[in-house]
Write a structure and sequence with these properties.
Elements (H helix, E strand, L loop, with lengths): L2 E5 L2 E3 L5 E8 L8 E6 L5 E7 L6 E3 L7 E6 L4 E6 L8 E7 L2 E2 L3 E5 L2
Parallel strand pairs: 2-11
Antiparallel strand pairs: 1-3, 3-8, 4-5, 4-9, 5-6, 7-8, 9-10, 9-11
Length: 112
């Protein structure tokens, strides 16, 4: 059974940082493209970042480029999203996603 379990969300002030984790079981993160997707309150899904299966290429939405970093730890079978210089507009439910699988999401709230 495949599970993607996100963690690391929370309430942070503008300018702060968070690191999201996505722990996979029944699924090997190093074999597939991995994605972070978010959904802000009252809005649709927004792609945030991708990590190529070979680990050699990363991609970012313009809205997060230069502030967010996607990575993975193959030994821990875990995907990460380091988020720096957070803005109120980054407030959303963040999902880890790959192939047909989705995690349950972790809430990030950026507010003073």
């Amino acid at each position: 059974q495949v599970q993607l379990v996100e963690s690391g969300g929370g309430l942070v002030q503008p300018g702060g940082s968070l690191r999201l984790s996505c722990a996979a079981s029944g699924f090997t993160v190093s074999r597939y493209w991995m994605y972070w997707v978010r959904q802000a309150p009252g809005k649709g899904l927004e792609w945030v970042s991708s990590l190529k299966s070979d680990g050699g290429s990363t991609y970012y939405a313009d809205s997060v480029k230069g502030r967010f970093t996607i990575s993975r730890d193959n030994a821990k079978n875990t995907l990460y999203l380091q988020m720096n210089s957070l803005k109120p507009e980054d407030t959303a439910l963040y999902y880890c996603q790959s192939t047909e699988y989705w995690g349950q999401g972790t809430q990030v709230t950026v507010s003073s």
